[in-house]
Write a structure and sequence with these properties.
Layout: E1 13-18, E2 27-30, H1 33-39, E3 48-52, E4 55-61, E5 67-73, H2 78-91, E6 104-107, E7 112-117, H3 124-128, H4 140-160, E8 164-166, E9 175-177, E10 183-185, E11 192-194, E12 201-202, E13 206-208, H5 214-219, E14 221-222, H6 224-240, E15 245-247, E16 253-255, H7 256-265, H8 283-296, H9 307-314, H10 337-342, H11 363-368, E17 377-380, E18 386-390, E19 395-398, E20 403-406, H12 418-428
Parallel strand pairs: 2-6
Antiparallel strand pairs: 1-2, 3-4, 4-5, 5-7, 6-7, 8-11, 9-10, 12-14, 13-17, 15-16, 17-20, 18-19
């Protein structure tokens, strides 16, 4: 897709590229600002679905009855312009049932807006930690569907899209849920296109505390493996219903891997299950999920699986049952049996040799985390970082590195004020 020009909010046009989102639409198009202003009732506060550092997302309804979500950038600067261009570019490239596609956009002289299909069940975050957390709408089957669907979307980005794409901000608020609770990975503002033959790049750190891979948070080294790490955290979050970072009595903060590691090491796998599930889960599914999570959150990126291999683990071992085999110790890539022993299932009678590394952020960065939303973007302001400690079981960030955490309410349209949500629900009927 070509560069975004400033004439897009003028006369309405129809895009020549196929729309890449929901199957009921065959094309994206250019919207006029007037059209989106009317659809959102003047960007009415009662229509607001979420708000973040980039701006706000609004619910809207077009004249032909289509429900849409409109992301309206609040600032017109080079950073916002770049993220807008990147997201529109990537959304115009991808086509997969588990990726939120482009419905259209508007780029006027002083306005930048992106239009998506509206997802009636909002985001995964809203069900785990937000508006719907007490309603327990996510049973075990829905969680498994979300896990597998999200993994398939990421596998497409890493292995099938040309060029390959690194998302860089995999988290619960960026997994949206349609009317059937099928997942769509969203928000490609931080995404990177990876040229052929390039295994990794060094870039400024952008992402969300709690999901950041160690090598990316410390050195800005980004690769597909960073997404794999974030997905591993998301797996633990979906299984347990816990936040990636939680506050303990006394103000101490703990990562989800610090909480999960002793339970996994002692074989108390069922203790990881979200109590809201009332012990209704499949034990084999749980073993596979924890196996995938344990491998995905390893501190060494070279020892993490690819997303294709993660899917193989989750499906029970598509390649001859390598990953799905209970007690299996063989790597699909050959060799490295020692690593596989460290994350093997154990037997079905309850013993477990499954191991998980406990990742710990430095105190300075943890202190900057906004625990209320647990959705703060992390951005390195000047490219300088200082490592306090690095080991196989933990890493620390802080010292002289200037890492800023942007505190935000919500980056897509997941978790929002209940009263506001009720008014919007009434408006939409």
């Amino acid at each position: 897709m070509g560069a975004v020009t400033s004439s897009c909010c003028g006369e309405e046009k129809v895009g020549t590229q196929g729309y890449v989102g929901a199957p009921e639409s065959s094309s994206w198009r250019l919207f006029t600002y007037k059209e989106l202003h009317a659809a959102t009732n003047g960007f009415n506060e009662d229509y607001k679905l979420g708000e973040g550092g980039f701006g706000s997302v609004y619910w809207g309804k077009t004249t032909d009855g289509l429900q849409i979500a409109v992301k309206k950038l609040k600032a017109m600067n080079s950073k916002a312009e770049m993220e807008f261009a990147v997201e529109v570019e990537i959304l115009g490239r991808v086509r997969h049932k588990n990726l939120l596609g482009l419905r259209g956009y508007c780029a006027g002289v002083d306005q930048r807006l992106i239009v998506y299909d509206y997802m009636p069940n909002l985001s995964l975050l809203s069900h785990l930690h937000g508006q719907f957390a007490d309603e327990m709408r996510l049973d075990w089957k829905k969680r498994m569907d979300i896990i597998v669907g999200s993994a398939q979307g990421l596998m497409y980005l890493h292995h099938e899209a040309a060029p390959h794409i690194i998302h860089r901000d995999i988290k619960a608020s960026n997994v949206l849920l349609d009317s059937d609770f099928q997942p769509l990975v969203a928000d490609f503002g931080f995404a990177k296109l990876i040229p052929d033959g390039v295994s990794h790049m060094t870039t400024r750190v952008k992402g969300t505390l709690g999901y950041l891979a160690p090598e990316y948070a410390m050195w800005g080294k980004v690769s597909e493996s960073c997404d794999v790490y974030s997905f591993g955290i998301l797996l633990l979050e979906l299984v347990s219903g816990r936040k990636p970072i939680e506050r303990l009595p006394g103000g101490i903060k703990r990562t989800i891997t610090e909480w999960a590691e002793p339970l996994i090491s002692s074989g108390r796998l069922s203790d990881l299950i979200d109590p809201r599930l009332n012990a209704e889960f499949d034990a084999d599914d749980l073993r596979r999920i924890l196996h995938a999570a344990a491998r995905s959150v390893q501190s060494d990126p070279d020892r993490r699986p690819t997303m294709r291999q993660v899917l193989d683990i989750l499906s029970g071992g598509g390649n001859g049952g390598v990953y799905g085999r209970v007690g299996g110790e063989r790597n699909v890539d050959g060799g490295d049996d020692e690593m596989m022993k460290a994350v093997s299932y154990g037997d079905r009678q309850g013993s477990s040799t499954l191991r998980m590394e406990s990742i710990k952020y430095g105190q300075e960065l943890m202190a900057m985390d906004d625990d209320d939303s647990n959705d703060g973007d992390v951005e390195d302001e000047d490219g300088e970082r200082e490592t306090e400690t690095t080991s196989a079981s933990s890493f620390e960030l802080g010292g002289g590195g200037r890492v800023a955490v942007q505190r935000m309410r919500e980056s897509t349209y997941g978790q929002y004020d209940t009263a506001m949500g009720s008014r919007r629900t009434a408006l939409r009927g």
